[in-house]
Amino acid sequence: MTKWFQFTSVILVSVFAVTGTANAQIRAGAHAGFDFDSSDLFVGINGTLPVMEVGDKTLLLNPEGSYWVTSDGFNLFIISLNVLFPLTEGSLSAYAGGGISISFFSFDAGDFGEFGDLFGLNNISTSSTDFGLNIKGGAEMGEGKMRPFGEAGYIFNE
Fold it and tell me: Up-side HSE of residue 38: CA atoms within 13 Å toward CB?
């Protein structure tokens, strides 16, 4: 098997956030970004849920799903579950973490008409499902309901 690495460096903006009680800090929202590896935009949803205290910091569970927006027959959807460790707190909060992901990839070439019939190119399609390990880091700005953030991540897949 050929190992492939996907590097996604993104600028994400939280569009919607729901905050629970002050102690719980459960948040959910939408994000959008740019994948420098494939030069595609992606959109998705993510959240953070506190899971346990480590010293004076709270580990956060970070479920997320992202869909790559392409127009050339490629489809990519990634679901991840990460654990984030806050590095700093305040109006600019840095974090780092990692977790697992599952990637769903498909390609459909469509119909090229008579040309496709002649060269056997019509209705070529393929798909794959891959599991991976993630590392990520970023920073969140602000302390209100809307929290813009920037994040970079790396997914190790086979």
Answer: 19
